[in-house]
Amino acid sequence: MLVIVVENAPPRLRGRLAVWLLEVRAGVYVGSYSRRVREHIWSQVEEGIDDGNAVLVWGSTAEAGFEFRTLGPNRRLPVDFDGVQLVSFHPEAPGDAP
After folding, report:
1. pTM confidence score
2. Which are the contacts of 72, defined by CB distance < 8 A and separation ≥ 6?
3. Residues paired with 38 in a beta bridge
4. According to the model, what pLDDT value does residue 75 have?
């Protein structure tokens, strides 16, 4: 299984993702494809994301049972901690607080 979540994605990318995957919520796409097709779909996201951001999650034999990739500006960044993928947060800039 794979899941792609996009934020601030252009409509043309969202339409392209909807061709391959089921959009279960706004910006959340799910499907079940091979590694090759998953990489093709992710290349489409890389080409079309513009100023948005995205995350791809897929099931694997990794310790956690899944792996993920991110793309675009986001406070959350993947980090490798002894072979386990974790998420690190960038602190908010002083002017970014609500």
Report:
1. 0.82
2. 49, 51, 52, 53, 54
3. none
4. 73
